[in-house]
Every structure is written in structure tokens, then in C-alpha cells.
Write a structure and sequence with these properties.
SecE_sf; SecE_bac; Translocase_SecE/Sec61-g; 87 residues; transmembrane helix; mainly alpha
Length: 87
């Protein structure tokens, strides 16, 4: 009967070692809220532009788009005119 008690003790130790990975899985699940906390912290660091800055940048984009459109239109007309001589 002494051997049975020793085998039971060894089996119990093996079972305790087998339970450790379950604790590791639980620890990984507990780390997920910290990701969202970090996300919230980083979101608070964002600085949004004021109305005046957005207006200036919008005007700059619209004017540069119009200018680029005119340049492309002029190049297109020059190329068409040049091809008119060839064909």
C-alpha cells in the first residue's frame, strides 16, 4: 500500500503541473483589457486642428487641385495640337 500512496503523490504533482498552462491562458485573457486601456490613452493624446487651420488647408488643397487641373488641360491641348501636325 505504500507504493500506492507514492504513486498518488506523483500523479497529484503531475496534475498540478498540467494546471499551470490553464493559468497562463487566463493571464493572456486578462491582458486584453490593458490593450483597450492603452488605446484609450493614446486616443486622448490626439490633437485635432482648429477651425482656422482646417479652413486654410482646405483652401490650399482646392487651389492646388485647380492649378494642377489647368496644367494638365494645357498639356493635353499642346499634345493634341502637336499630334494634329503629324496626322
Amino acid at each position: 500500500m505504500g507504493e500506492t500512496a507514492a504513486n498518488t503523490a506523483v500523479t497529484t504533482e503531475k496534475a498540478a503541473k498540467a494546471e499551470k498552462p490553464d493559468k497562463a491562458k487566463k493571464a493572456k485573457k486578462e491582458q486584453k483589457p490593458s490593450f483597450f486601456k492603452g488605446l484609450k490613452t493614446e486616443y486622448k493624446k490626439i490633437v485635432f486642428a482648429d477651425r482656422q487651420t482646417v479652413t486654410k488647408q482646405t483652401i490650399a488643397v482646392v487651389l492646388s487641385s485647380i492649378f494642377l487641373g489647368v496644367v494638365i488641360m494645357l498639356l493635353d491641348m499642346v499634345i493634341k495640337f502637336g499630334l494634329g501636325f503629324i496626322f
